[in-house]
Amino acid sequence: MKTAVMISGQHDSAADKPAGRTAPGFGSRPGTLPVTAAGQPALHALVAGVTRTLGLPPSTRVWLTADAAVTREANLYGRHLIIGLPLLSVLTTTELRALVGQELALLHRPDARRADRALAKWSDAVWDEATQEPPVTPRREPDPYVAELQDAGDRAAITAAGGAEPAARAVALANVAEAGYLLFRVESGPPLLGQWWWQFSDLVDGWDRAVRHGLGDAQWDTETATALARLHPRLSGALAALGRESLPLVASADAVPVAPLSVREQRRLVRGLIAQSVPTVLWWRTYETAPARRWRRRAAKDARLVRAHVAAALGRDVADDVEAIRAIRTGAATGECGHAGGHHEFAAGDPAVSLIEDHLLRRGWRLEHPAVRGVLIGPDGRRVDAVELLRAGADSAAVRELFGAR
């Protein structure tokens, strides 16, 4: 999926240098790529436009990373806006403007470093309270300094986006995308722990493909919306309204276009993501060149968990996967596999997809793209989408034919 940001691995030309920038290479950030007018024109123009809208000095250094967040940092080398490439897949241009505006407004304060520490401390306190059971009452309130910082960031986000609704949606999507990206990396990306010596160079491309196919409903609920509202008081009404809706992670129809990155640039971003800033030797793979057994093992492991969950819900062993799918569909298997007491609508990211993957991968099928769950190609070229099969019903001829095929 194309996003609207352009990046260059080269040093900026004189025309690209913001006022106050240091010499090329001085203060550069390991594991990042500079956003320049030559390399990433769309993203560069967006940041410049937000800077003008907010009346801020054009001295910010802008960087791309392979993380799913928009953050900021003020240090001895200047003021840095750090934009996560994976996040751009799910944001509209307007939503990205909101996040950029919020960070720029806080970044250009004279007390930027103190502000960053105060907001980080308050954010930790809010999320700690949000995860406690039973809920903490009465809740803590921010001190006047933090409240002023929150208000300044929210006002900048609203100004940059042209309204509270797109600003609130940007904040919400940034939250769920960060969690969704972490889950994607656990399931389909390079290992987070253990086998650090090999990595996928096309990690972000894999994420973009998964987003285009659909990742299903994100981990979004009223409790999350309430916590975000405490961090963004001016957006609290719009966030509360969003908390009553589903918030799926899907490809944005108005994403900022991103210029393609070279293999070297992709690897640089992944090194930054795994905190490998020194020239450590890594074994680089792509999703297409990864051993097929990796995806068979993933499907088998996930399918075992689904079968065990269904068996626990039914209180007995499951006869076969057709029965397991039927139990999930009718609501007999609740929790992670289905909804209690009602019909279950299968969607992208559904745990039951692994049941079909497990059957077909063991029978010589392959994933159309390993980063996209449930879309498989047979030895004869036949293409199957597991979600479509699941929606057809466990007793459909197509499901039984596939499960019985040898």
Short summary of the structure?
The protein is built from 14 helices and 9 strands. With 406 residues, the protein is α/β, with parallel strands linked by helices. It has 2 domains: 14-285, no CATH class; 292-404.
Structural account:
- With 406 residues, this protein is of the alpha/beta class.
- It has 2 domains: 14-285, no CATH class; 292-404.
- 47% of the residues lie in helices and 8% in strands.
- The chain has 14 helices and 9 strands.
- It has a 4-stranded mixed beta sheet.
- A hairpin with a 7-residue loop joins strand 7 (366-367) and strand 8.
- It is globular, with a radius of gyration of 23 Å.
- 44% of the residues are buried.
- The model is unreliable at 1-26 (pLDDT under 50).
Distance between the termini: 36 Å
- Secondary-structure element series: EHEEEHHHHEHHHHEHHHEEEHH
Helix content: 40-55%
| Proportion in β-strands | 5-15%
| Total count of domains | 2
Q: Kindly report the average pLDDT value.
A: 86
Tell the overall outline: globular
